[in-house]
Amino acid sequence: MKKALIVLIMLFLALPCFADQHKVLKVVDGDTIDVLYMGAKERIRLLNVDTPESVHPDQSKNTPMGEKASAYTKNRLNNKLVELEFESKLRDRYGRLLAYVIVDGVNYNLELVRNGWSPYHTKYGTSKKYHAHFMSAEKKAKAQGLNIWAVDGSGSTGFHTIAKPPAAKDYSGNVKSLKFHKSGCKYYNCSKCTVTFKNRRAAVHAGYVPCGVCKP
Ligand SMILES: [Zn+2]
């Protein structure tokens, strides 16, 4: 009886060695995962990274690069046991736990940046623990033109939404001049033409004036 108790106490003491490993239940996208944490499913938003979107409710925000980043994280983290490291602010406004994810002894947040799947994201503050690591990881990924830093022929990086060819019925509006164009007009893709309309009526309704060149 006494021996059993000692074994039990020893097991209990050994527990913390394993207790900080958490099972990854689901990879939501490149920078968001669900883990089993303290007996509950928790959504984890990885600190200081921001991979391109792949599951955004607004479909136009999802990009092929987002799909690739998501696939990378799925491949690396699905069904794995991970450790979580926190900084001072534990949750974001969506209730997600903000953390560094350690997999196989590697800081996965840094891995994302090192491989060019994410910039060093400092919108909500710089990293207290790994600032220098993030800086150097981003610098290297940029220098190698990895993934989001890959420069395509047009000189834009993969991080930005890849513009889909507009459907014939789409009209674009210049948010500065409030003129709108139909596809095919040389001004259709002007730098301020950032609004699209499903039809002519919608454009007029929004207060836009037809372009004098393409006469939509
Ligand atoms: Zn026009």
Q: How many beta strands in the DSSP annotation? A: 10
Q: Under the CATH scheme, which architecture of the largest domain would be assigned?
A: Beta Barrel
Low-confidence stretches: 153-168
Name the CATH class of the largest domain: Mainly Beta
* Rounded average pLDDT: 87
Query: How many individual helices?
Result: 5
Helix content: 25-40%
Order of helices and strands: HEEEHEEEHHEEEHE
CATH topology of the largest domain: OB fold (Dihydrolipoamide Acetyltransferase, E2P)
Main sheet: which strands, in order across? 1-2-3-5-4
Structural class comes to alpha+beta
Domain unit count:
2
Key features?
2 domains; five-stranded mixed beta barrel; OB fold (Dihydrolipoamide Acetyltransferase, E2P); four-stranded mixed beta sheet; 216 residues
Give a description of the structure.
- The protein has a 5-stranded mixed beta barrel. The chain has a 4-stranded mixed beta sheet with strand order 9-7-8-10.
- The chain folds into 2 domains: 14-149, OB fold (Dihydrolipoamide Acetyltransferase, E2P) (Beta Barrel), CATH 2.40.50; 171-210, no CATH class.
- The protein is of the alpha+beta class.
- Helix 3 (108-114) runs parallel beside helix 4.
- The protein is built from 5 helices and 10 strands; from the N terminus they run αβββαβββααβββαβ.
- The radius of gyration is 24 Å and the shape is elongated.
- The longest helix is centred in the N-terminal third of the chain and has 18 residues, at 2-19.
- The protein has helices at 2-19, 64-77, 108-114, 131-144, 200-205; strands spanning 22-29, 32-37, 40-46, 81-85, 97-103, 106-107, 171-173, 179-182, 195-197, 209-210.
- Zinc ion binds next to loops.
- The site of zinc ion has 6 residues, from loops.
